[in-house]
Every structure is written in C-alpha cells, then in structure tokens.
C-alpha cells in the first residue's frame, strides 16, 4: 500500500467518523426533550433569591504579591493552599486568616496547587512540566524555604491541574498540555497510568482541568482545549469511558457535582454546562446573555455542597452564582460590595460546604460565608 | 447635617466584615458629592471653644458657663432649650439624670450638661439597633462626643448590661464612621479631648458635693492619676503624630482601640505604623492576615514608625498565645522582609547625600556592612572603608570602594587636628591612636590610607607603614573605642566580583528584575541563544550536576550519531554489493573464480564480525529506544570497540559520504571527530561542546536564567547611571513551543515580561516538517499566534533571525524562493557579478545580506499589519558569543527605550523609528 493510498483511506475514515459523530449529535438533540431548568419550571419550582448580604466576605487573606492562580482546601482543619504569579505557594489558616507556610517555588510559573487529603503535603504544577510535592512537616533550609520532597516528572507539556485522589495521600492525578492526564504514585514518583497520548483515544489538545469523583474516586473527568470533556476510569487507561461534546470552545474547568453522577464544565464559549455521566447527556446550559459581542470565558467553577448553587468566575470579572435548578443567576459576586478589585481567577468550596474561597488577580483571597450563620472570630 | 457624613462611609477600608458593608451600601445610593470637608464644621465648633474651657476653672463648681458654648452648636436646635436651661440647674440635672439613667438602664453620661443630649441619642441608638441608617446618622452626629463618652464613661464598666450595649454599637457601626472622619479629627483631637476630660473632672467634683453614686467612686480610683498622664501623652503625640499616621480610633487611655474595652494592664498588640493598640479579641480583626506584619489593615503599605524598627521581627507573647508557631513565624518574617517596612533609603545620608534604593542595597549587602543602620547622617571614607556618624569619630570599618553617597568632606567627622586622612580632618582620638601606633604626625600631614591599613603621605609613592600592623595598635583602638578592620574584610577585587552573584533581597529583586521571554519553535536556535547567555553572563554557567548531565547527554548523542553512521554503512554496503553484483552479472562471461567469493562479501563498507555484532547491538538498542538507558553507563566497556570502529575504513568511508545521511545532524561531525576524547569517563565538556550539544538544557520546555550585563570596561568612566544599570537584573526565559500547545493558554503566565524575543532560523526556508509544510511558514504561523495573543497586547517584540551563517552559505546554493512566502524576492544584483567582483565592490551587499533584509521586511510588514506597531529585528549567529551578546544588548536598549517612552511619550515615535532602522542596517 503506498503512502498516497494510505492517506486516502485515512481521509475517508476521518470523514466517516465525523459523519457518525454528526449523526450522534443529531440523535442526542432529538432525544433531548427538556433540560433541568425547563423541567423544574414545569414543576413549579421558583428560583432562589439572594439578598446582597446573604453571602458575606468574612476574611481577606492578604500576602501574595502576584495574581492568585489556583487554590485548594484541605478536607478538614480549614486550611487553604494558594498558588500565585509571584512564584509562591501559601498555606493559610482560614480561621485566623494567617499564613502557616510560604513556599518559594523553584519554578515561578505555577498554574495549579492541591492539598493532600491528610493535610500533610501540598502539590503544585506549572510550566516546568513537573508536579512538585512539598511535605509541610519537613525542615526548612537555610534560607527558610521548604524543600521539594518529590518531583513527578514525565509530562512533556505544562501541568495545568492536579488533584489528589481522595482518601489517599499517595496518588495524584495531573492534567497537562501534552494532551494527557497521568495518575502518579507519589511514593515511587512514577507514573501509574497515562490517560490519552499518542496511541490512545485521548484528548486531541491540551488538557486544562481534572476533577475526581467524590463518591467513586476511580472515576475522573478531564476538560480540554479540544472542546470536549472526557470521563476516565483510572483502572482503564487505554480509553476514555465517555466523551462529552457540546462546548464550542476550550473547556477550561471541570468539576464533579457533589452527588458524583454529574459534572459541570466551564468553557471559553462563555457557558457552563452540566453533564450526566451515566447517560452521557448534557443536562443544562448556563449562559447569561451579554449586551456586547464579547463573550467572557468561564475560568473556574465550583458547586455548593447541595449542588443547588454553581459559582462561576468569568474572564470579565464577573462571578455569577447560578441556581443550578432553574439556570438563573441569583448573585454576582464580582460586583458585591467588599468584593475583589480584580477578576476572580479561582474558586473553591470548603469540604463541609460552609465557606467559599475566591482567589483574584488583585492578589488577595477572600472567604465568603452565608450571613448570619457564623459570627466572625 | 448628618447624612453628609454618612456618605463618606464607602471609602472606609475593608477591615470589617460584610455586615457592616451592607449598611454602607444603602448610603452609596444618594449622589456622592464628595463633600468630605463638611466634617469641618464640627471641628470649627469644637476647637476654639474647647480650648477655652480647658483653661477656665477646674476647682470651681461654677463650671457651666464655659462649658455651655460647645453645646450651642448651630445645628442642634432640638436640644437648645434644654441646654439653655442647664447652666443654672447643673447639679440637679445631673442627679436627675442619674435617676433617669438607672430607670431605663441606659447608662449614658456623667458629663453634666452634655448628658441629656447624649443620652437621648444613645437611647435612640440602642433602641433602633437594627435600623442601620438612623444609627449611622446618629453616630456621626455624636461623633465628637463619643470620644468624650469613652473617656469619661468607661469607668462605669461594672454596669454590665449597659456598657455592653454600647460596646456592641461601637463594634458595629462606630468604627467605619470614625475611619472616615479620622483625617479631620486628628488635627484637633488633643484639644477636644482635653475639654472632654476637663468636663469630666468638673463634673466629678460637682457631683461630689451632692451625692456620690457608685459610678463616681469607681471613677476616682483611676481617673485622677490617669488623666494627667494621658493629657501629657496626648500632647507629646500630637507633635510626632503629624508626620506619621494616626490611629483611626482611639479609646480612653489604655483601652483597646477597637472595642474600647480593657485597661492599661490588659495585654495588647501595637500597630507598627500608627501605634494603635488592640486587645486579644480584636487584634485579628483589626490586623487581618498581616501581610506586612503587625499593622492595622488600613495601615498596610505605609512606612513604619521608625521608633519601632528595633522591634521588627520580635515576637510578642500575645501573638504566640493565640497563633501557632508557624503562623507567628510567617508574620514576623513578613514584618522583617516586606518592602514597606524597609528602612527608607532617603533617611540615610552618606557624605551629605541621601541614598537611593540601590545604594542602600549595596551598603547592606556588602561583605562587611555597617551594623544596625539607623536613619541619620553618616560619613564614609571610600578608600579606607572608615564609617562613622556625621561629626563623630569613625565607628566601624566597612567594605571599601562601595559606590555609595557623595565624596567625603574634610569636616565630615568635625575634627580640628589639621591632620587629614583621605581628605578628612581626623578627630583628636584618632590622632592619639595614630601617635600611639607610631605614625609620624608632626607637621600636620595629609595621609592616604588604604583599606589594608597601609598609609602614605599624599603626593608620595611609597608606603610608609601599616597602621593596624602592630599588635598593640588594636589594643589601643579598643581602649579608644576606635574601629579596627574585621578579619573577614575582603579585598576590593573580591567584593566587586561578588557584586553579580550576591543575593539581593526579594523585594528589591522584584523591583529590578526585567524579564525577557525568548520564544522559538524547535530548531530555531533559541536554546543556543539561551546557552550562550548563560556562558556569557554567568560566572559559573553550569553547575557540577548540570555538567554531569550534559556530559552523559553528549555521550549518548555520540552513540546516536555513531548508530546513524552504522545504519548508513549498512545501506552503502548493500548498495555497493548490488552494484557489484549488477556489474558482475553484466560481465558474467568472465569468470573471476578465486576472488569472487571474497569480493562478494567484501567492499570498502564491510566490517569484521566482531564489529558487526557490536554494530547490530547498537542499532538494535537504538531502535528499541534504550540508548539512554544503556550507553553512557556502559561507556567504559565499549569505548575500545568504538575506537576500533571509528578507525575502521568502512566507517571512515561512510563518514566521508555523511552528506547523504539525512538523519545525521551537521553538528555530529564536531563530536565524531573527537569521539575518543568524548567517550572517556573523565571527559569534561567544554563550553563549546555544550553549546553544540543538542537537548541538554533542562529540556522540559521552560528554562530561565538570571543575569546582569557586566560593566562594559572597568577603566571607562563609570557614571552613576551605569552603576545602577549593573544592578538591573535580567531574566531570560526560554520557552520551547514544542511542549506547549498551539492555543498558547500558557502565554498568560508571561504577561509580566518586559519584552518578547521571537527566534526564527533563517536557514529554515528550504526545510520541511514531517507533514510537508515549510518550516518558515510554520514559524510565521507561530509568530502570528504569539504577537496577536491578547496577553501581549502592547508588548514589544524583537525578532531574531538566527543562523545567519548557515543561511549565507545556503543562499548561494538554494534560491530563497523555495519558500512560497518569499516568491517575490528578486535581488537587484545578480549573484554572478557579486561573486566575480567580490573584492572590488565592497559596499554591494552579498545575497545573504539582501535576503536577510528582505525577510526582515517581510516580518516587519506582517507584524505591523497585525498589530500596527513596529517590530524590532536583529540577526544572529548563534554560535558566536559576540553576536548573541550584541543581540541581547539590543534587547536591553529596547527595554530602556520603553522606560524612556513612558517618560517622553511624545518624542518616542521618531526615536524608535531611527533606532529600528539603524539597528537592522548596522548589523
């Protein structure tokens, strides 16, 4: 078989695949008789109402000198790790709003950070294509810097996101600009499995985000610049369990719904979407019409513990609180009094759902809680 | 009157929780006219009157007359009647008031005349504790009075319920309000305070005659001694305070500034800027996360109170109690190291010249710095390193030759001995020391003393001796408390060398670091530029570890090249055999019986069985991709074989035909010709080896190096601007496009870079990528993506056209039109003529230069069509250090122009036009 023939066949096969995909899409469209909001409305549900004082900023964490890019809570003990443009990780005590660790990173271009489930270590990754693990209990060196306790190297592109596998401190899943996700064994520092890549049916562009299912930690989703989200079983690296189409732009962020059967996505096309992992259907699109033609990108999302609220940060500085049931914006955190001066770049809910932490390009983090429930300090 | 004050609220700093801000929200609505000065009327009403009051009778029971006027505020009509009555009924009214207070459990005031008014307000306050607007209004009205309230009133703490009520109000709304008024208040604070205190005093006495309620007795215990003290302190503060920040709120003496509870003896934390004191409960709320140490949230970013500098970084017991060890450590570290808390350099004058940031940094980071630098005037003898306070004898010998401050003045240490050292008239003590050290000081000599203590008379050549040479001298110095050189003092050469490598504090590094992003697609030579920069500007370009890794990498590469050669050899052998067979079959008729068998298997490309097996082994490992795993480690074993192989004619023959081996990179010959040397275990790669090596820099796509340009030449006159320039550090960040996807999400991370250098290999114009696209076009596409990326809006780009040497050589063979983007390249001068007349026509550009200019213009047009701005272009030969040096210096110039552009934006466009043109022509 000559090269020309091969190319021809390849083109034909690609054509077939695309046709099939198109048919699949149409079929799905037919089957999609309603969405969550439509159904809820028909059931007579009314949207939540939020007063301007219902969500209060109760702490401001100051200490970074650059934009905050990423944050993560510990499952307990109210600690937060944040990563910033200034090349530092800071571990915060959210209750006292004090820093407990400030870690100067060997590579300043950090994109993501994560707290280990036991709260003993933090991980970060960035343009150095490595995931670095810092043990918070290790001794600082002469200059007062915490040494790297492990580097996980093997990615061929930047590390865009990392998350520890819940309930174990030894496994972490990273996503990378080399189109793969990797499950790592931290104790050995080796790759346990690689999801996607050249020879496998993985993402076809940079993977930007991962989220592990809270109720079944073997399942995780990834969102990518190829405008899809993929569901993976961490035991089966060979192929994705399911691919979710629908977005018309890079999928910047994915987050599992608290019940573990759904997940949300945020994309450059300005929408957030809710997908069901069992049916593979798209359940709801969250999109707020804007006056001008500029469609702001969704940069980060987080669900409230019940799943009724979806917090979504946008590239134009908005941070909407969506009522997931009725697909209505109930509050814009970006314009609330006392909010950040810069745009909100990352969001995270504490494990017990009592507080929301937002990181911003104004170098601060703020912790929000529902008014009246807690008296501060 | 009141609402106007409330409008001020939104400007309050974000130190409170959201609840308080929700009140503020309601007040944003009304049109803000920025009538802040309206607070002034309150002052006007207060100051003069209060001042008068304080002077008039203290012991007299007839207090009423002077006190009344302040209450006769023009706008408080509501209370005027009551107030007018008061003078006559003062004592009774107080009693009546006391009763009333106890009746409604609202403990307002003792301060006689004011009482009814205040109590009325307060009652209203506590009743409507939920209607925010009215509260705020009320609060702002009584703003001034509250300060009185607090001072007079706090002794009645025992009355639990009521004081609590008040405090809670304070807590919720008083503070923001005060914050807004603070600037105005601070001016007349002391006087108003005085008046209030006096009022309290009088009141006290007047009360004493009639009846003494419990409250009053309580007050007596504390107030009498407390009052005077506070009074005087207030006055003292008033003097200093004008310069520094004032606390936003202030309770009575000794109480917490936020909750107004507690007394002098409760433990408190002090703001290092405004001296506000907070109790246990309030400190976290008032100081937040303490990004700059113990400062109120509103004081963040302000310079600290110099008197507190000594306490920086010293932990208090209180912090330790309610924060854990790690948290405390972070706070103290921030306090010590953050920029806002550093000694302002202009506070330090050296030889009559205030320092700038860089000079202070030099001073503090020199090997032998003056200890505990405090604001003040100093003199510094640059030659000998003597250092002292202005007008005093030397206190220390610091590192000499620091470029700090102005020239030393003769009267710097205020000496009157007429003996001079390095142009400074020395003090008597020093003269005494010199005498004891055996130095001839008769005849008022002028000495020249070097840092090592050698001295000579001015205008003479030979050293007369060493001042600190004798053992006794040091003892003498100790007795006279004069400094002696410390043992660690370095020679000047060393200190200059360490200039580049010394550590700079973080905040300063941030300030002076200029980031340059170096982007290029693979094969564009950006890595070479990066390595060149390392070699050019770093004292130790590669660490031991790096070198070891590089060595292994080079050795692996060499095996790789060897493998490619062997592959080629096999091919050539087969080709040769086929040729021979063909030749034989055509001449089949002539039998060559004897030699035919031999010739069948042997030709120039054949090798022996032992080498053959090695060759097969090498090729197999290469195919399986295990080359890196096996080879450098097994070098010892295989080196002899490789040697044999290399010397073998078959390999040599193949090597001679290396141009036919497409896979073999051109650099291979550089290494292969020195293969024995390289494969030795003790091989140490030279800088050039490293430069040529492929894939040796930490190859995960991103690498960065910090450097500063060395001063051009030491004997050149260094003006101060240049000196500061050498402090400017540059960070060259190399990013390979390979590791990073097409859509460049990662570019956002580089929004803080000063400029972008985009690297393109000129010689790529006839190269094609695996899928058949011209590499130059790929580069162009990548270039388009990068320059149009929103992150790099308004960013300056420098295009480096790399590999000019290869290009010039190639253009003679391959026409530039091979790349379709360049199909309209029609050089005016034919190649033929330039070649023949090469020596006669010097100013005729070579085709290489022409083509370079043509490509540069192509890129410039593309750039300006995309962005509407000018593109800087430079060419480069990656392997020539000077070429890289000049390109990077050009980049530095561009960065400098940027600064100039900021200063003189109007004249810039012209300037840049000339610069770009000149540079692209001059190279």
Structure characterization notes:
Chain A: It comes from Hibiscus syriacus. The complex is a heterodimer of chains A (377) and B (923). Chain A has helices at residues 3-31, 36-42; strands spanning 55-61, 68-73, 79-84, 88-93, 98-104, 110-115, 121-126, 130-135, 150-153, 159-164, 171-176, 181-185, 190-195, 207-212, 219-224, 229-233, 242-244, 251-256, 262-267, 272-276, 282-286, 298-303, 309-314, 319-323, 328-332, 344-349, 355-360, 365-370. Chain A is mainly β. Among the domains of chain A are: 1-31; 39-62 and 246-376, 7 Propeller (Methylamine Dehydrogenase, Chain H), CATH 2.130.10.10. In chain A, a hairpin with a 4-residue loop joins strand 24 and strand 25 (328-332). With 923 residues, chain B is an alpha/beta fold. Among the domains of chain B are: 268-341, no CATH class; 345-480, no CATH class; 510-523 and 700-710 and 727-824 and 845-905, 3-Layer(aba) Sandwich (Rossmann fold), CATH 3.40.50; 544-578 and 605-692, GI Alpha 1, domain 2-like, CATH 1.10.400. At the A-B interface, strand 1 and strand 5 of A face helix 2 and helix 13 of B.
